[in-house]
Design brief:
S-layer homology domain-containing protein, Immunoglobulin-like, seven-stranded antiparallel sheet
């Protein structure tokens, strides 16, 4: 081997060995040099974290970016930060060199000021991060708009480790998904796509991000909190429909456009345009008038027709029953359906004037009413029956006359500016105007002279004022030409009365030639700037001048002649200035003249509640008052310069260093202190000293007295006083506006100590006072759990209770004679869980503290209320039979059952099982613990003290699974039942990482969340059990076929597992193979193709209900789709309730572990294969998605039912030939199974008429090679279950 080859080989070997090192656990990388630390480096190397490694590579790539100096500030930008469109972020990943229980995440909003990135004050949050097995997960963390700095922090011993990441939250509104719902079908409504709908009513729905409002063609849609939106019903017009969709939030707005065609077979034309003497007008939905004199015209047609491979060129076109014209030069666009197959043709045809003569009377004079009757005759490519596209239109002729053809509203026009394509406009007909005066652009056949345009209300004929808008450049009526929509002359319409009005437009003395329906609803409103009803206004009385500036405007009152008698009342005192408001003719609004309202003890505004009232009379311009408008707002002024007590509490002095008050994690400097128990208003403890924590605001002096003795006093704006004989040290953080104080090691000899804390504001003399009573007892022990939770009584809703007893120097602590275990994280703390409490009575429990010289005894009374409700739990040793919650749960096991570890089958010690009724909001079964702490909210005293205790999080990986939409076709008809055996042993006995079995656990516990259990510690019963659940008595007997059981497993997946229903007892029974959540549900609604099925509705509904046959998509069950081999195998496994038997050793080469489809899963295929129900083709190929034949189905079923099959010989062959006319088509291997299924009447043939004319007796075909639809397979499955699995389905189901 050459030296070069050796070098290459060694390099490859080194690279291979290095690749075996998991990246997240490699040694922490040094901080990369970057521009602010090494100016010689032109660009930075890839950024890497040191201790926290997110799974999201984009986020990981922002780690520890240097932005702290002017030279490096540009490093953070849109191109380097991770961009989020959502206001929440979830992060998972791995960590190293820190303790999992110490991890927190701090999110700060960053603002760039000059060359510096600055964290905004009061714009940060800190979240505790869940961590198990070197994996961390934090969910739905709120982001701030703009740039966010995410700091992960953890500690190991006294060392603190951090990694920093950067996220840019773009709050711009966007559409994640948009669909149009028509005729029960949801179609994607994408930009540029052309859809064809066949129903005249449609709805638009979808999902938004960062948007709170959405309108569709001006109509408001319903927007839900989760971003889903549902538009109003829309009536489509035949042809092309355009949708203008505007989505917005508080700061941004985006408008998108979509379109769809509506195909109406009775009105297939999407556009019909006539051109005469160069003037083109559309006949769709209108009868226009032409004023040309020519007797010829051209016709432009556009229509939709069902797709045919043949072109419409060459089709026969007949207009007004005239001479047929052969279409040439047609432009055709093929429009596909949602599956991509051609569905329609959009055809455009230009008809020359030779083929379209205008209609004349017998004297060859053009008719004033011109019909346009169109017929297109088309013969399909298949040679089928010809069909015709027919429709009728018309227009009017008024040769040489001056007429109004149309008008458009200019809603925001000011009467002065130029008008172009960007000037907003809309058709006047159907418009809604905001004032009685508005501008329009009029399209006339000829230019109108001054005074020619007339407008009048119909039907009364009352005239309306029409004014011309004069163009100063021409001194003529302003004329707009060359734009897309706004061509014509500009006029101002005035004096329109309120309501829906029909306005008729005419020229001179001619009759009306254009009418428009216009709605005017006057909106009278007084708008105040920055002042609204219920508002709370904060002031600081230490500032010399405090005031509110009153300003605003009148909206909708019109001209200055209409407003009379304005009045302003401030706290019932008339404060109307003159003038109060000034009319602005450019906006047609009144502006309230800005005025100062001072906040003083003498008014007009005061601390507390205030009222401002404005009254305005709205007239007809004269003396008649049409409306009296009153605007009144009530608001509150509060003085933030008042002292406020926020928190006063005693704390247990820690054995190690105290966390500073500046710590961002509040729980670090306010650790749980169970040694100080609040009893009847006093904190009772055996400690001889404690830490006093004080938090407040608005104080110039803080004074602490014990009785009459002052032990501490300070001004929050000055230095902290030195310690004295009463405490060892004072810690302070903040200012007079907000501060925290901690007095360390406050001495408390045995007895009662009352402390008075006084906050004084020297500006206004206000004080705030709080008292704290601490009672120090010289006793040998304290019971920290259970504690009184209802008055002085201990009442629980479970048959077990946790004892946590602090007993200094005790040799042993016994609970009803059982020795408690000593906690490893606390000195002198003993814990024991006592089970077997008697229901609905007082349980007397003996506690014995065994000391060095004597024993101390006490009796504790605990009342166990057994009424089943959410939060109720029951614990007992795992046995053969369990009846829980008044037999709502009945669980039985074979006598030889044991608990085994799932990943390796190791038999585990028998443990207590825990049963619970879960909170339907989040699945929690333990709402309040025995320390009287709210689980998920309070710091939990059961958590390890390493170095501080924490709360047990309600983890979203589990709590989100209780969203009712997850099983949206079903409605829950029982409680959520929790059944747990806890976690098995970790590692081996004697190993450093060994952990004992836990026994039954609550789903959220100190061991972690159910969906995050260590896979190596998951346990299952060694033998299959039987579980019977009670469901609501209100469910009627006839609904039994639609009742089923759902299981939520440790992967966080809800599974429909069916069950045998006892309709009389209102119970349902299922096999029990794994621990988790169980609930009973009933089908709420199915699918249209089930409800409308001709013969299989009930059986399909039943199989869907039981989870035996799932739907193929979200919108359709797929009743008449062909069933596949994989789906039929899954149907057998599910419907027979077979116990899953699978691992990663796959039987078939094409069915890999983890693979699945909408209708089958890998585990089901593997279970069927190992049971011998299915076999593959050559080369170990199963072909799960291949269609299933009837003879293959017969073989699978006969094997699944272990039927005794006849000998496959000539005798059987003769029997089959006699039974079925198509026996020759059957494969030999299938004959015994076909015979067995036919004899059992599970699979029978279909009758056919004999081809021999002399034979009248009907014969039977089995159709062995025919495919089966899902409905046919369902019928076979129901027959099988009714015959061989009694009780699985109602006997009368057919």
């Amino acid at each position: 081997m050459t030296p070069m080859k050796k070098i290459i080989n060694y390099m490859l070997l080194f690279a291979l060995l290095f690749s075996f090192i998991p990246a997240p656990y490699a040694a922490a990388a040094p901080a990369p040099p970057c521009l602010d630390t090494d100016t010689s480096v032109v660009s930075c190397p890839p950024l890497v974290p040191n201790y926290f490694f997110p799974d999201d590579g984009e986020l990981k790539g922002t780690a520890n970016m240097k932005i702290s100096t002017p030279e490096s500030a540009d490093n953070l930008s849109r191109s380097t930060a991770k961009i989020m469109n959502s206001g929440k972020i979830s992060i998972g990943g791995t960590f190293q060199q820190v303790a999992g229980s110490t991890i927190t995440l701090k999110v700060e909003q960053l603002i760039r000021t000059g060359d510096a990135w600055v964290a905004q004050p009061n714009r940060s949050s800190v979240t505790t991060v869940g961590a198990v097995n070197l994996r961390f997960q934090v969910s739905d963390v709120e982001l701030f708009q703009g740039y966010n700095r995410l700091t992960f922090t953890g500690s190991q011993g006294s060392s603190t480790k951090t990694d920093v990441f950067y996220v840019l939250y773009d709050s711009a509104p966007l559409i994640k998904k948009m669909q149009i719902n028509s005729n029960g079908e949801l179609l994607d409504l994408n930009e540029g796509a052309s859809l064809v709908l066949t129903r005249s009513v449609a709805y638009i729905q979808g999902t938004l991000e960062n948007a709170t409002n959405l309108t569709i063609n001006g109509e408001k849609a319903s927007v839900l909190d989760n971003g889903q939106f549902y538009g109003p019903a829309m009536n489509l017009k035949a042809g092309l429909n355009k949708f203008e969709i505007t989505l917005s939030n508080n700061t941004d707005s985006v408008t998108v456009k979509r379109q769809a065609y509506y195909y109406d077979k009775d009105h297939p034309f999407t556009n019909v345009e006539v051109t005469q003497d160069g003037v083109k007008q559309s006949l769709i939905g209108a009868v226009p008038t032409f004023t040309g004199s020519s007797d010829i015209a051209t016709l432009d047609l556009e229509f939709l027709a069902p797709y045919d491979t043949k072109s419409y060129n060459g089709a026969s076109l007949v207009i007004n029953a005239g001479t047929p014209y052969s279409i040439t030069g047609a432009t055709e666009t093929v429009i596909t359906n949602s599956y991509g197959a051609p569905a329609y043709r959009l055809v455009k045809v230009n008809v020359p004037d030779t083929a379209y003569p205008l209609q004349k009377d017998s004297s060859s004079v053009l008719l004033p009413g011109q019909p346009v009757n169109i017929a297109i005759n088309f013969t399909p490519s298949t040679g089928g029956t010809p069909w015709t596209v027919i429709d009728k239109f018309e227009f009017k002729l008024a040769a040489g006359q001056k007429l109004v053809r149309g008008a458009r509203l200019l809603p925001s026009y000011d009467g002065v500016s130029a008008i172009d394509n960007n000037t907003p406009s809309m058709p006047l007909n159907g418009a809604e105007v905001k004032t009685d005066s508005f501008y329009i652009v009029v399209d006339a056949t000829q230019d109108l002279a001054a005074g020619e345009l007339k407008a009048a209300l119909q039907p009364v004929g009352a005239p309306i004022t029409v004014g011309e808008v004069i163009d100063p450049a021409t001194s003529a009526i302003r004329k707009v030409v060359g734009t897309t929509n706004n061509n014509g002359q500009v006029f101002k319409i005035s004096g329109v009365p309120e309501g829906a009005q029909t306005i008729a437009f005419s020229v001179g003395a001619n009759p009306p030639s254009y009418t428009a329906r216009v709605t005017y609803v006057s909106k009278l409103y007084v708008e105040l700037d920055n002042l609204y009803d219920g508002q709370v206004v904060e002031i600081d009385s230490s500032v010399t001048s405090n005031k509110i500036v009153l300003s605003g405007r009148y909206i909708g009152f019109g001209s200055d002649t209409r407003v009379k008698d304005e009045n302003l009342y401030v706290n019932n005192v008339n404060k109307t200035p003159s003038p109060f408001a000034t009319y602005d003719p450019t906006t047609n609004e009144y502006n309230i003249n800005s005025m100062d309202l001072n906040i003083t003890p003498s008014g007009p505004l005061f601390i507390g509640e205030n009222r401002i009232k404005i009254t305005v009379n709205y007239t007809d311009g004269g003396t008649t008052i049409l409306r009296n408008y009153v605007k009144e707002v009530k608001f509150y002024i509060v003085d933030k310069n008042l002292p406020a007590v926020i928190d006063i509490r005693p704390l247990t002095p820690p054995k190690s260093t105290r966390a500073p008050l500046t710590d961002p994690v509040r729980a670090n400097y306010l650790p749980p202190s169970p040694e100080l128990q609040l009893i009847n208003g006093a904190y009772v403890t055996t400690l001889d000293k404690f830490d006093l924590f004080i938090e407040g605001s608005g104080a110039d002096d803080v004074t602490v007295r014990e009785g009459a003795t002052e032990i501490f006093k300070m001004n929050p704006s000055s230095t902290v006083p030195a310690p004295n004989a009463y405490y060892s040290r004072a810690d302070f953080d903040g200012s007079r506006n907000g501060f925290k104080i901690r007095l360390d090691d406050v001495l408390i000899p045995a007895g009662t100590h009352t402390y008075t804390i006084v906050f004084t504001n020297n500006t206004n003399g206000a004080t705030a006072t709080a008292t704290l009573t601490v009672q120090s007892q010289n006793v040998p022990y304290r019971i920290l759990s259970p504690v009184a939770n209802t008055g002085s009584k201990i009442i629980v809703n479970k048959n077990f209770v946790l004892f946590d007893i602090e007993a200094a120097g005790a040799k042993d602590v016994q609970i009803n004679g059982n020795s408690a275990n000593k906690r490893t994280d606390f000195t002198d703390r003993f814990v024991y869980t006592l089970t077997g409490l008697k229901p609905d009575t007082d349980n007397k429990i003996n506690v014995v503290i065994k000391g060095a010289s004597a024993d101390v005894k006490e009796t504790i009374t605990v009342t166990y209320m057994s009424n089943p409700d959410k939060g109720t739990m029951f614990m007992e040793p795992m046995g053969d039979k369990h009846n829980v919650f008044n037999k709502a749960i009945q669980l039985t096991f074979p006598k030889n059952n044991a608990l085994r570890r799932k990943f390796d089958g190791k038999i585990e010690p028998k443990v207590n099982l825990l049963f619970g009724i879960a909170d339907p909001e989040n699945g929690n079964t333990e709402l309040v613990n025995d320390y009287n702490q709210v689980v998920g909210t309070d710091i939990d005293s059961r958590t390890p003290n390493t170095p501080t205790q924490s709360r047990i999080p309600i983890d979203s990986s589990l709590s989100s699974k209780f969203d009712p939409d997850l099983t949206r076709h079903f409605i829950r008809v029982s409680d959520y039942y929790w059944i747990s055996a806890g976690m098995g042993e970790a590692s081996k006995v004697g190993a450093s990482d060994y952990k004992e079995v836990t026994g039954g656990l609550a789903p959220y516990s100190t061991e972690g969340t159910f969906t995050r259990y260590d896979d190596r510690r998951k346990v299952v019963p060694s033998e299959r059990g039987v579980l019977t659940l009670k469901y609501d008595d209100s469910v009627v007997t006839t609904a039994a076929a639609e009742v089923t059981v759902f299981l939520l497993d440790s992967k966080g997946e809800w599974k429909n597992i069916g069950g045998k229903v006892d309709a009389k007892a209102k119970t349902v029974t299922v096999p029990f193979d794994e621990f988790g959540y169980y609930m009973v549900a009933k089908l709420k609604y199915g699918y249209n193709d089930i409800s409308n099925h001709g013969w299989a509705r009930d059986i399909l509904q039943a199989l869907l209900s039981k989870g035996y046959m799932p739907a193929l998509s979200g919108n359709e069950f797929g009743a008449d789709d062909d069933i596949t081999r994989g789906e039929f195998a899954g149907l057998i496994v599910r419907s027979l309730g077979m116990r899953i038997n699978s691992d990663d050793n796959n039987t078939f080469g094409d069915i890999l572990p983890g693979s699945n489809s909408a209708a089958w899963r890998y585990e089901e295929i593997e279970t069927a294969a190992r049971a011998g129900i299915i076999q593959g083709f050559d080369g170990q190929i199963f072909g799960a998605d291949r269609p299933l034949t009837r003879e293959q189905a017969a073989v699978m079923l006969s094997r699944a039912m272990s039927l005794t099959l006849p000998m496959n010989d000539d005798k059987l062959k003769a029997k089959i030939e006699k039974a079925f006319a198509d026996s020759a088509k059957m494969d030999v291997y299938a004959l015994p199974s076909i015979d067995a299924m036919n004899s059992a009447k599970v699979m029978v043939g279909s009758p056919v008429i004999s081809p021999i004319p002399t034979q009248n007796k009907p014969l039977i075909n089995f159709d062995p090679k025919n495919k089966m639809t899902r409905a046919q397979a369902a019928q076979i499955a129901v027959r099988l279950l009714q015959k061989y699995v009694k009780g699985s389905l109602p006997a009368n189901l057919s």
